[in-house]
């Protein structure tokens, strides 16, 4: 029996997967399937039950289910809603007359209790990521269901949008996130960058490509400052039985149009392509990359302003131009760009990056207008002070290099 996530990643998360729609209904193949007469396994938290295979396999799958639940809670930064006597059941069956693998996700309200079940038919032939997506979908449903009254649960159980279940599932393990980035890199090399709205509402991609783009879109939504409010809005719409609209992001991002949100998404994807794949301690090359990332090249200005950039700006130059209309977008882009350099790096290097990220966050704080942020605004002198603290932290780290 495993103690970490490594073996389960190999067992349940293949590098290449095909997307299969989740079906919240009674399985039509149930009558033709066979379930082994073995003892079911109950997970350590009593949140999951597994049956249909051998007892050792039940135990292994119960551990995996707990692992997914913990990863999901960590990703969303909120606890799953499980009431006593309402476990999620994973059932494995074999259909001797069928060659195809099938995954069914079901939920119902019976006897004033929530019943959720995943039925996997011919487990050796299913796409294993489909099982993960079905599991994540049912777990996410528990958030809006927890807010429903008993009478409304009897009428209709809440369901989150399918794209959210797929996108969240595509962010639980490193191998999936790496795949998402690879798809984006390949698309970026061909000059293709799907819009956020197109990804969420439907786009001309299928299978692994769609999964990867939904994973990236969800990673971005969960990483931006209004992430908790975004999730609350999605869960509230599901609780009411309404479709969640991407335009509901506009007030949460404190912008005037959805196009401004799309621009922030574009810049995030661009910045993500600069994330380094190797892992290790800080080096002189890391500090050189940081120095380069602090320069605002003409092409970056052009992307943000839609006008031709003429010269390179330093971050000190930005302080003097902090009131221009496009500074908020540029500051957010620079903050994400700098923070991306810290993935897999030492805490010392990440501390330096955090100082620069704080500078850009303060630089981008709205000081005027409808969405002004009282108390967040900083004077030019305060911004220069924060910039000097960041420079000092970088110099101190440089002094430690051999």
List keywords for this structure.
single chain; 402 residues; alpha/beta; Glutaredoxin; 3 domains; five-stranded mixed beta sheet; disordered N terminus
> What is the helical fraction, as a range of percent?
40-55%
- How would you classify the helix and strand content by structural class? alpha/beta
Assign the CATH architecture of the largest domain: 3-Layer(aba) Sandwich
Major sheet: order of its strands?
Answer: 1-2-3-5-4
Q: N- to C-terminal separation?
A: 44 Å
> Per the principal axes of the C-alpha atoms, what is the gross shape?
elongated
Beta content comes to 5-15%
Determine the CATH topology of the largest domain.
Glutaredoxin
Order of helices and strands: HEEHEEEHHHHHHHHHHHHHHH
Q: Give the total of beta strands.
A: 5
Largest sheet: 5 strands, mixed
Identify low-pLDDT runs: 1-30, 276-280, 369-375
Number of domains: 3
Please count the helical segments. Answer: 17
Round the mean pLDDT to the nearest integer and report it. 80
Q: What is Rg?
A: 24 Å
């Amino acid at each position: 029996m495993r103690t970490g996530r490594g073996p389960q990643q190999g067992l349940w998360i293949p590098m290449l997967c095909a997307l299969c729609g989740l079906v919240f209904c009674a399985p039509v193949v149930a009558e033709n399937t066979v379930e082994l007469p073995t003892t079911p396994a109950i997970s350590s938290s009593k949140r999951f039950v597994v049956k249909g295979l051998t007892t050792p396999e039940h135990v292994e799958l119960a551990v995996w289910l707990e692992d997914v639940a913990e990863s999901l809670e960590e990703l969303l930064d909120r606890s799953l809603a499980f009431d006593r006597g309402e476990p999620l059941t994973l059932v494995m069956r074999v259909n001797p007359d069928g060659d195809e693998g099938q995954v069914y996700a079901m939920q119902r309200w019976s006897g004033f209790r929530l019943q959720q079940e995943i039925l996997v038919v011919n487990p050796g032939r299913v796409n294993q990521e489909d099982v993960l997506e079905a599991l994540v979908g049912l777990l996410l449903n528990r958030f809006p269901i927890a807010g429903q009254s008993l009478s409304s649960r009897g009428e209709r159980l809440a369901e989150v949008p399918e794209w959210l279940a797929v996108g969240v599932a595509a962010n639980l393990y490193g191998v999936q996130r790496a795949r998402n980035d690879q798809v984006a890199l390949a698309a970026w090399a061909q000059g293709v960058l799907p819009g956020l709205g197109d990804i969420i509402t439907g786009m001309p991609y299928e299978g692994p490509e769609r999964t990867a783009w939904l994973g990236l879109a969800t990673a971005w939504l969960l990483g931006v400052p209004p992430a908790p409010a975004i999730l609350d809005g999605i869960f509230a719409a599901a609780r009411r039985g309404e479709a969640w609209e991407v335009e509901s992001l506009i007030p949460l991002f404190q912008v005037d149009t959805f196009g401004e949100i799309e621009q922030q998404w574009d810049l995030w994807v661009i910045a993500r392509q600069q994330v380094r794949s190797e892992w290790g301690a800080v080096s002189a090359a890391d500090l050189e990359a940081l120095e380069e990332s602090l320069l605002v090249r003409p092409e970056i200005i052009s992307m943000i302003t839609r006008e031709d950039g003429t010269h390179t700006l330093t971050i000190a130059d930005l302080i003097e131009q902090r009131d221009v209309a496009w500074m908020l977008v540029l500051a957010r882009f620079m903050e994400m760009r700098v923070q991306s350099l810290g993935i897999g790096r030492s805490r010392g290097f990440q501390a330096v990056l955090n100082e620069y990220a704080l500078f850009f966050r303060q630089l981008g704080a709205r000081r005027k207008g409808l969405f002004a942020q009282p108390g967040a605004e900083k004077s030019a002198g305060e911004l220069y002070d924060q910039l000097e603290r960041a420079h000092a932290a970088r110099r101190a780290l440089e002094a430690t290099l051999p």
